[in-house]
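Teaching assistant here, posting this on the class forum so everyone can see the example we discussed in section. The complex has two components, and the goal was to see what a joint structure prediction looks like when all of them are supplied at once.
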Amino acid sequence: QVRLQESGPGLVKPSETLSLTCSVSGASMKTSFWSWIRQSPGKGLQWIGNIYYSGSLNYHPSLKSRVTISVDTSRNLFSLRMTSLTAADTATYFCARFESRREGYNFIPRGHFDTWGQGSVVTVSS
Amino acid sequence: EIVLTQSPDTLSLSTGDRVTLFCRASQSISDSLLAWYQQKPGQSPRLVVYGASSRATGIPDRFSGGGSGTDFTLTINRVEAEDFAVYFCQHYGGGLITFGQGTRLEIK
């Protein structure tokens, strides 16, 4: 069974940098895409970005300048780094597996998230 | 960027009712790239339907998805107490992922 677990600070000061890690168990990181999604209090879901183990990346256009996603297959985890935080970045941050299918030697996204972490609450406040 | 608009924002209904949730895309999309999620308070979202009409593992058959082009639906036959939650649609295309704003199902 695939499990994802987020870890990171619950409180970050304005203008500082957020670093979150998602630990993956029960799946090879080389067979899927891995994602970060956030949800502001009482609001909807916002996709942040995807990464494939090879380093292939996609980011939400509005966050691209402040976000870096990286993967460490040796430790079975992937990470989110977001700079210049403001109160608007206060949210629950989820990591998720973006399911893929094999096509030859490659894995292609199937278009949906089949497994989510439980979420990490991040508050931006001084 | 594809914009997904869900309607209505909130639905009040009773257990046993049949309900249809709507998701409209700002332009025509491939139905293979449209999914629905259920989220209960304090929980992470749970995949309900993918590829517009395929139920995810463990989802009861009272849930069904449909639609094509720009208009998609999620129908729940005979709503049960455990189904009261917020439902989001989601699309993947051109390397980007977007979510609808959500529809809340509440008990009448």
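For the discussion questions: Chain B has a mean pLDDT of 96. DSSP finds no helices and ten strands in chain B. Think about how each of these relates to the inputs above.
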